[in-house]
Structure formats: structure tokens, C-alpha cells
Design a protein that fits this description.
By secondary structure, the chain is α/β, with parallel strands linked by helices. It has helices at 22-37, 61-68, 85-98, 118-126, 141-156, 160-174, 188-193, 221-227, 257-270, 287-296, 305-310, 327-331, 338-350; strands at 4-11, 47-50, 76-79, 104-111, 196-198, 201-202, 212-220, 232-241, 279-281, 364-371, 376-383. It folds into two domains: 4-116 and 210-233, Thiolase/Chalcone synthase (Peroxisomal Thiolase, Chain A, domain 1, 3-Layer(aba) Sandwich); 125-205 and 234-383, Thiolase/Chalcone synthase (Peroxisomal Thiolase, Chain A, domain 1), CATH 3.40.47.10. A nine-stranded mixed sheet has the order 3-2-4-7-1-8-11-10-9, with helices on both faces. Strands 5-6 form a two-stranded antiparallel ribbon. Helix 6 packs across helix 10.
Length: 384
């Protein structure tokens, strides 16, 4: 199997970006990635643009993004997998490069969300559920994940304080991330006293809608070694799906089977185990999601995710540091950009460029990105 590396990464500031359009956000991340790799745009021979539909007036955003980045007439591809769009974009780029069809591909994850009201966004996000059997009855993302939280609490005794601890941890690390939307710490009490959104989830248990972009430059081994002396290799790619409607899934709502399946594929491809991972970025759209992911990725046994938090094993210096760039809870969640943002953080860790949150000796990193309510899951394993 041909070796494929990430040779450059770029990241815009996440938040309410009224100063930039969709294409301008994409350029911000793309130009940052070119500077990081120290190459010209002429070195890029194709692009994969990742953006979830409906949040912006523009349809087929790959067209306007490729034009604005100066990549015409080179081919461009539009990839959409809800919140996992740009993680799937990396898999697409890996396939295009490893096949020999392209040498260097730019993966650009970008989303413009804050021009819509929260009520409009929740209605659109609800359509990530089954539009025949679920979303017409008023389902929203917080309500879906609240059901998982309630099930985990009932089966394992997980508490609201356990979930609040995720937010406290991630907000603490968000203060060290200049690109994050939120850079202020919160306490357990702050989380518990924040207004209810969908019981038992409260405002501070939830990530925020955001605008932003992130870019990955992906190259074959020959090009990678010419471009940089610090390539980060794509070691494992796992991608799985689940039935759209919750009624079509099996087992209790205390786990995402889609994450287990994607992780199994990624671990097998990379020839590693969960215990080999040095640092991880996991999907924390809601505080309960991070806890479920600890268990589904094999970092903790079922029901023991909260103990991993209590023992500070997911902190910097712990057994498996998780979301020490602040996670979605601090950075915000521009859905098309989130996967590439997570992977950018892992690349920086493996290149020993993570500054105040650098994990000593990190050689193997994992990024896990859920799309929708667990319809898709991507698990990416990278090596230095």
C-alpha cells in the first residue's frame, strides 16, 4: 500500500466570523497550510472541499472555493458527511493520492454557520436524523444526545457532574488555543447552573455553532519527502456507518457502534491497539459524547469513562490526553471544518509543535469524528 503523508496544515480562527465569507475562510486556512509546508499553490494538483449543505446559500461550494484559491482548472471534489465531512475528505484525498491519480491534494474543510439563528440551525441539524420518521417530530441534536446521556446515567450511574467535568477540562485547554472560539475557564458549578437545553444537558454541556476552516495538504511519499523533513504519515483510516433512524440500531443507547466499527478498522490498518495511542482528539459535540468515545475507542471499559476523567488520565500528563486543544466545546463546531481541525491538532502534536499542550514523546495520534447522531464515524490514526 502506497504511503501517504500530511505535509502541511492550516487553521482559521473559529467563532462568529462576520468579517469573512465562506470562500475567505477557506483561503485563510489554505494560505496558512501553504506557508506551513513552504510550497506554492502551483504544487497542488487537486482539492477536496468539505462543507455540510444548507447552512450557506452557496450550493456546490467546492466550485467557488477552488476558484477563490486559484486552483482552476485542476479538479475539485465536494465531500459531505455532516459533522464528519473533512475527516472523510482526508480519506478521499488519501485514496486519490495512494492510487497515483494525484500527487498533492488540498483538503479544505469550511463552514459558515452563524449568519443563521440558533433556531434555524437546530432545525437544519435535526434533518441529519431521518426526515421521514424522526425530524418531523421535533428531534434536535441536543435531544438526541440527551437520550444517550440518560441511558448512560441509568445503566452505569454516570452523573451530571461527570459530564460537567468534560466541559471544565476542555475549557481549561481552550484558554491555550488562540484559534478557539471560547478562551475562558468554567467550573463544575458554572456548568451545572447553566440553563437547561435538553435534560440532562445544559448550555455548557453543548458545543457552539461557529464559522471557520481548516486545511490539510496530503502528498505521496516521494513528494512528501521533497516538501518537508517532518511528514506525518497516515497510518490508519477507519470509516463506518449506522442506520439513520435510531429505531434501526441494535443495543442500548450507551454506546455508538459506528465508532467501535470505525476504530476496529483503523487500529487494524495501523497495526496498533488503543493502548498505543499517545494523544487523541475525539468528537465532543456534547459532554456526554466525549465520555462515550473514551469507551467506544477502547480507552476505558464500558461505564468507566467517567473514572478516566476523575483519575485525570485524559489530562496533559495523563495516560491518554484527550482534546487538549480545547475540543469542540472550546473551539466551536463549524461542521465542515471540524474533522480537519482535529487532525491539524494531532499533526502539530506529532511534529512537537503544540506549545503549552505538547504531549511528551507523542508518536501516534488518533482523531475521531462523528457525523450526525452516529450515522457516520471516521477514525484517523497518524504516525510521526
Amino acid at each position: 500500500m502506497a504511503r501517504v503523508a500530511i505535509v502541511g496544515v492550516g487553521h482559521s480562527k473559529f467563532g462568529k466570523r462576520s468579517d469573512a465569507s465562506l470562500r475567505e475562510l477557506a483561503f485563510e486556512a489554505y494560505s496558512d497550510a501553504l506557508d506551513d509546508a513552504e510550497i506554492e499553490s502551483s504544487s497542488i494538483d487537486g482539492s477536496v472541499v468539505c462543507s455540510a449543505t444548507h447552512y450557506d446559500k452557496q450550493r456546490s461550494p467546492a466550485g467557488v472555493v477552488a476558484e477563490y484559491l486559484g486552483l482552476n482548472p485542476k479538479p475539485t471534489f465536494n465531500v459531505e458527511a455532516a459533522c464528519a465531512s473533512s475527516a472523510v475528505g482526508l480519506r478521499t484525498a488519501w485514496s486519490l493520492v495512494s492510487s497515483g491519480l494525484h500527487d498533492v491534494i488540498a483538503v479544505v474543510g469550511v463552514q459558515k454557520m452563524t449568519e443563521l439563528a440558533s433556531r434555524e440551525i437546530q432545525e437544519l441539524m435535526g434533518r441529519a436524523g431521518d426526515v421521514m420518521w424522526e425530524s418531523p417530530f421535533g428531534t434536535t441534536m441536543p435531544a438526541y444526545y440527551a437520550m444517550y446521556a440518560t441511558a448512560h446515567m441509568a445503566r452505569y450511574g454516570t452523573t451530571e457532574e461527570d459530564m460537567a467535568a468534560v466541559t471544565v477540562k476542555n475549557r481549561k485547554y481552550g484558554t491555550k488555543n488562540a484559534k478557539a472560539m471560547f478562551q475562558k475557564t468554567v467550573s463544575i458549578e458554572d456548568v451545572l447552573k447553566s440553563r437547561p437545553v435538553s435534560t440532562p444537558l445544559k448550555l455548557f454541556d453543548c458545543c457552539a455553532n461557529a464559522d471557520g476552516a481548516a486545511c490539510l495538504l496530503v502528498a505521496n511519499a516521494t513528494k512528501a519527502r521533497k516538501i518537508t523533513d517532518r511528514p506525518v504519515w497516515v497510518a490508519g483510516l477507519g470509516l463506518a456507518s449506522s442506520p439513520m433512524a435510531l429505531a434501526g440500531r441494535h443495543g442500548p443507547m450507551t454506546s455508538f457502534e459506528v465508532t467501535k466499527n470505525a476504530a476496529k478498522s483503523a487500529y487494524e490498518m495501523a497495526r496498533v491497539k488503543a493502548s498505543d495511542i499517545d494523544v487523541a482528539e475525539v468528537h465532543d459535540s456534547f459532554s456526554i459524547t466525549e465520555i462515550l468515545n473514551y469507551e467506544d475507542l477502547g480507552f476505558a471499559r464500558p461505564g468507566k469513562g467517567p473514572k478516566l476523567l476523575k483519575d485525570e488520565e485524559t489530562e496533559l500528563g495523563g495516560k491518554i490526553p484527550v482534546n487538549i486543544d480545547g475540543g469542540l466545546i472550546s473551539k466551536g463546531h463549524p461542521v465542515g471544518a471540524t474533522g480537519a481541525s482535529q487532525i491539524t491538532s494531532i499533526v502539530q502534536q506529532l511534529r512537537k509543535e503544540a506549545g503549552d499542550v505538547q504531549v511528551d514523546g507523542a508518536k501516534i495520534g488518533l482523531a475521531q469524528n462523528i457525523g450526525g447522531i452516529g450515522m457516520y464515524c471516521s477514525v484517523t490514526i497518524l504516525r510521526s
